[in-house]
From TrEMBL:
UniProt binding sites for 1-deoxy-D-xylulose 5-phosphate: 162, 188-189, 210-211
Catalytic activity from the UniProt record: [ThiS sulfur-carrier protein]-C-terminal-Gly-aminoethanethioate + 2-iminoacetate + 1-deoxy-D-xylulose 5-phosphate = [ThiS sulfur-carrier protein]-C-terminal Gly-Gly + 2-[(2R,5Z)-2-carboxy-4-methylthiazol-5(2H)-ylidene]ethyl phosphate + 2 H2O + H(+)
Keywords, sorted A to Z: Cytoplasm, Schiff base, Thiamine biosynthesis, Transferase
Gene3D superfamilies, per the entry: Aldolase class I (3.20.20.70)
Metabolic or biological pathway, per its Swiss-Prot or TrEMBL entry: Cofactor biosynthesis; thiamine diphosphate biosynthesis
Primary location: cytoplasm
Organism: Aromatoleum buckelii
PANTHER family: THIAZOLE SYNTHASE
Compartments where found: Cytoplasm
Protein name from the UniProt record: Thiazole synthase
Assembly, per entry: Homotetramer. Forms heterodimers with either ThiH or ThiS.
Length: 261
């Protein structure tokens, strides 16, 4: 079955995107990402060295850009100006790389997106030639606004970043999915494999996660579980689940021709 994820005109086999932070070392990072099967890996430019700090270990030595699509992100940015500046630096470091993840946070406690600043940054970045995948609130109106600005993917949160609380508002996600003409990926809040499967069963095009893998007791094993969950959820969505029947049952076996009837 040819069921590729298309982002900014490029095809990917895996619908699982993973972060590179919070692991104990680069070796564990690479092992977990290999187990996940992810082809797109997101990197926090303000927290991870990809060449801006000479003499320090470089993540790109472990995750070479010729093997993985590096997705620089603006984690830790609280204004549109900071986010734009960070991604322009990333483009220089990655030789003109245009695909980026935008996130502008509202406060350091909830890490909820600041949507006015996110919209402002998205407009600047799209005009500047970036291909913007954007972390956003699960607000269908603002998600549509980001799409209309020209973002190549919208990524509503399932719940707060790093919370592991899973999908708290599936109804809003469905509204966003139903109206979107660009990929919709759940970003933030996934805690375990069932959360990822549910996101895919709802019709999401993919799932982005970091903490759920990196903070598991066995990150490599959890990465493998997430890979399977995303694949299973996608297959279930394509297969089409049976209709729910709230007040009646439907026996698995035929009822006609029973002995004694």
């Amino acid at each position: 079955m040819n069921d590729s994820l298309m982002i900014a005109g490029k095809s990917y086999r895996s619908r699982l995107l993973v972060g590179t932070g919070k692991y104990k070392d680069f070796a564990e990072t690479r092992a977990a990402i290999d187990a996940s099967g992810a082809e797109i890996v997101t990197v926090a430019i303000r927290r991870t060295n990809i060449g801006q700090n000479a003499g320090e270990p470089n993540l790109l030595d472990v995750l070479p850009p010729e093997r993985f699509t590096i997705l620089p992100n603006t984690a830790g940015c609280y204004t549109a100006d900071d986010a734009v500046r960070t991604l322009r630096l990333a483009r220089e470091l990655l030789d003109g790389h245009a695909l980026v993840k935008l996130e502008v946070l509202g406060d350091p406690v909830s890490l909820f997106p600041n949507m006015p600043e996110t919209l402002k940054a998205a407009e600047i970045l799209v005009k500047d030639g970036f291909e913007v995948m954007v972390y956003c609130a699960d607000d269908p109106i603002q998600a549509k606004m980001l799409e209309e600005i020209g973002c190549v993917a919208v990524m509503p949160l399932a719940s707060l970043i790093g919370s592991g609380m899973g999908i708290l508002n599936p109804w809003n996600l469905r509204l966003i999915i139903d109206q979107a003409k660009v990929p919709v990926l759940v970003d933030a809040g996934v805690g375990t494999a069932s959360d990822a499967a549910i996101a895919m069963e709802l019709g999401c095009d993919g799932v982005l996660m970091n903490t759920a893998i990196a903070h598991a007791k066995d990150p490599v094993l959890m990465a493998s579980a997430m890979k399977k969950a995303v694949e299973a959820g996608r297959e279930a969505f394509l297969a089409g689940r049976m209709p729910r029947k709230h007040y009646s049952a439907d026996p698995s076996s035929p009822t006609s021709g029973l002995i004694g009837s």
